[in-house]
């Protein structure tokens, strides 16, 4: 039986409810686990988590989107979507059974639906248990959940963006120092996000492999992280594969910094996005042929300044910088030429 509220699912009111947004990244992909720079923004779509104590020794987790209930003994991780919540519970010292009601309109694949779920869960826990967690510490706890319970060695961008970004500006994050500041969108432009309809699973993909490759590249170059390399020519001494992976990280960091230079307009920003996609497709090899098709259609549209895949890759969403007021018409025109079932537009 499908439940539409916590009260309907559990017969009582929740004790804490919180939301957190998904995010889309404009520039700075696959650099956050090498101490690099990123430029995400929050999207309007959010994950919502309602929590309440149940007086038992098991967690009862209900996803309205999946119409699925998972029961997990306190202290265990569980399977399916459970680790995203039970990891938050474990790291927050929860030792009693909780009921959780989860709903989300954040599309899966490249828009940080998992980070939104973690941040919403941790926000609800912060209220429920009066946890001493500021927004940065909360984001870092979400990263720890991914590493220790989900099995994805992600960087800090997704959880930081979900915890700290808004929809009105981009959030420049130095993922080494965690310094951050709001950056305005290029004048006369707006953001368009389209889900390619190609599903992906990070833990089953090459994501962790890519991280291991760039860590080895940094080791061979004698630097703590590829963030410390600014000249792309420096990576040419590396063996094949590591060279290409490192070249992407170095040039991608440079693209973010170039986007922050005075006088950068929508045209220049779009060029940097196009170059980012070419690097993600070629050097980092994390795109997908259907994603490339969608990006090419966007890049060819006269009202699009630039477009690229966004997120970890291997499917998922694409992002475009579009002439102000033209996002809806552009999406309609592009999707008319793109037949992938399940594609959707995120305004």
TrEMBL record:
One of its GO terms (cellular component) is cytosol. GO terms for molecular function: ATP binding; galactokinase activity; metal ion binding. The gene is galK. It comes from the Bacteria. PROSITE patterns: GHMP_KINASES_ATP. Residues 93-164 form the GHMP kinase N-terminal domain. InterPro entries: Galactokinase, GalKase_N, GHMP_kinase_C_dom, GHMP_kinase_C_sf, GHMP_kinase_N_dom, GHMP_knse_ATP-bd_CS, Mevalonate/galactokinase, Ribosomal_Su5_D2-typ_SF. Residues 5-52 form the Galactokinase N-terminal domain. It holds the Pfam family GalKase_gal_bdg. This is Galactokinase. Its EC number is 2.7.1.6. One of its GO terms (biological process) is galactose metabolic process. Keywords: ATP-binding, Carbohydrate metabolism, Galactose metabolism, Kinase, Magnesium, Metal-binding, Nucleotide-binding, Transferase. The keyword Magnesium applies. Belongs to the GHMP kinase family. GalK subfamily. Residues 265-336 form the GHMP kinase C-terminal domain. The keyword Cytoplasm does not apply. It comes from Deinococcus xianganensis. It is an enzyme of class 2 (transferase).
């Amino acid at each position: 039986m499908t439940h539409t509220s916590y009260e309907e699912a559990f017969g009582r009111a929740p004790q804490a409810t919180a939301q957190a947004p998904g995010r889309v990244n404009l520039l700075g992909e696959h650099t956050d686990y090498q101490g690099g720079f990123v430029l995400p923004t929050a999207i309007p779509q959010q994950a919502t988590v309602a929590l309440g104590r149940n007086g038992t020794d098991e967690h009862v987790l209900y996803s309205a989107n999946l119409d699925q209930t998972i029961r997990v003994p306190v202290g265990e991780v569980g399977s399916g979507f459970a680790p995203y919540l039970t990891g938050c519970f474990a790291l927050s010292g929860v030792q009693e059974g909780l009921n959780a009601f989860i709903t989300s309109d954040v599309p899966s694949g490249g828009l940080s639906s998992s980070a939104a779920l973690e941040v919403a869960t941790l926000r609800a826990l912060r209220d429920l248990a009066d946890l001493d967690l500021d927004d940065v510490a909360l984001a870092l706890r979400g990263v720890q959940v991914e590493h220790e319970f989900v099995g994805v060695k992600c960087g800090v961008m997704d959880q930081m963006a979900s915890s700290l970004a808004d929809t009105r500006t981009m959030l420049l994050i130095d993922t080494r120092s965690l310094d951050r500041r709001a950056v305005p969108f290029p004048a006369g432009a707006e953001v368009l996000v389209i889900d390619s309809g190609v599903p992906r699973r990070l833990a089953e993909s090459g994501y962790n492999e890519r991280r291991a490759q760039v860590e080895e590249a940094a080791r061979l170059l004698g630097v703590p992280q590829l963030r410390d390399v600014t000249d792309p020519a420096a990576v040419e001494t590396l063996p094949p594969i590591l060279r290409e992976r490192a070249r992407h990280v170095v040039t991608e960091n440079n693209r973010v910094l170039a986007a922050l230079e005075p006088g950068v307009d929508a045209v220049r920003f779009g060029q940097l996005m196009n170059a980012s996609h070419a690097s993600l497709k070629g050097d980092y090899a994390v795109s997908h042929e259907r994603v490339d098709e969608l990006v090419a259609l966007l890049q060819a549209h006269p009202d699009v300044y630039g477009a690229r895949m966004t997120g970890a890759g291997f499917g998922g969403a694409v992002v475009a910088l579009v002439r102000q007021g033209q996002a809806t018409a552009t999406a309609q025109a592009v999707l008319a030429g793109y037949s992938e079932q399940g594609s959707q537009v995120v305004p």
